[in-house]
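Hi U.,

Before I forget, here's the chain from the pilot set. I'm dumping it here mostly so it's searchable later in email.
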Amino acid sequence: MRGSFSFLGANALVAPPTHWEALSAVSTRATEVCARKEFSSNTCNGCHFKDTGTNDFSGTDNLAFTHVSPTSGIPARQSKFLTGGGDGFMFVVPDAQFGAQVTSWPFADLLRRHQRLQELAHCSTCGWFIDLDAGYLNRMEAIAGSVPLDLAPGSPASTLTVGPIRDVDVVKRLLELRPGFRMRPRELPLDFLEPPAARVH
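Structure:
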């Protein structure tokens, strides 16, 4: 093809505003500070600018606006947000809205992803269960005559009468009682799950 043509490629230049700002957030409320950061860092400007420190040009390893440099050669350079700044290090960025006097955020995102994938792959402590007060189970047994528990193979026998509840009106009564009992989520091992089995046909 003759002539000179500009290559039309994707480009996502990031310009101010540098992050998403929560105008009504209060710096003394941790939940509001964390919520703003989580929301902002999942927007284009937050992820590629102030929330992850990619607007900091002082370090040679830190990139401007990109987490993987498209022009740094082979291997491509990665941002400190991804690498943490080196093996065993965390890259610390002051909060984009409230500054370091309120909090700073540590990053080593490739390590975080690796650890999360390991947890999911091995699935040893990745199950969240709702913890009901034992009083609720006793009340359930008194009303329904049985408790529909799933017992792990090899676990001790329950002191409660275990069985299904088939009466819809009883289920409604139990659901109305539930808010009055303490509940909290907790993480438990999933070792009782049957491991994948190879079958040959």
